[in-house]
Amino acid sequence: MRAALRSRIDSGRFETWLTSSAGRSLAFVTNAERAMVVLLAAEGDPGEHAVDPGAEGFSDGFVLRNGQDDEYPDEDTVPLDRAFGLVEHLVGRGSWPADAHWSVDR
């Protein structure tokens, strides 16, 4: 998973969506330093996203496929290596790791 995401980033693709056969989706959007990791239960679900409690400031450069360039509070994103680990765990086990912090947006 980590290698696939890294390859996408290296080729300029900063937004990745993974969808399970059960209808859940995982969004990964990065600026190559931090990432927004969002887990959606179904289409239209506001979902839940990984957070970095206590992080300060904002980061920009989160470029979506449609060209939109977003800025997020650092508290609502996680460092890239952490994001890779979260995605690997979510894909492999279907749930957030025990040590993860996330915010429910529903």
How would you describe this protein?
It contains 2 helices and 8 strands. Strands 1, 2, 3, 4, 7 and 8 form a 6-stranded antiparallel beta sheet that branches. It has one domain. A hairpin with a 7-residue loop joins strand 3 (34-40) and strand 4. With 106 residues, it is of the alpha+beta class. The chain is globular, with a radius of gyration of 13 Å. The relative contact order is 0.22.
How does the SSE layout of this entry go?
Elements: H1 2-10, E1 15-19, E2 25-30, E3 34-40, E4 48-50, E5 58-63, E6 69-73, E7 78-79, H2 80-93, E8 102-104
Antiparallel strand pairs: 1-2, 2-3, 3-4, 3-7, 4-8, 5-6
Overview in brief:
By secondary structure, the chain is α+β, with helices and mostly antiparallel strands. The chain has one domain (2-104).
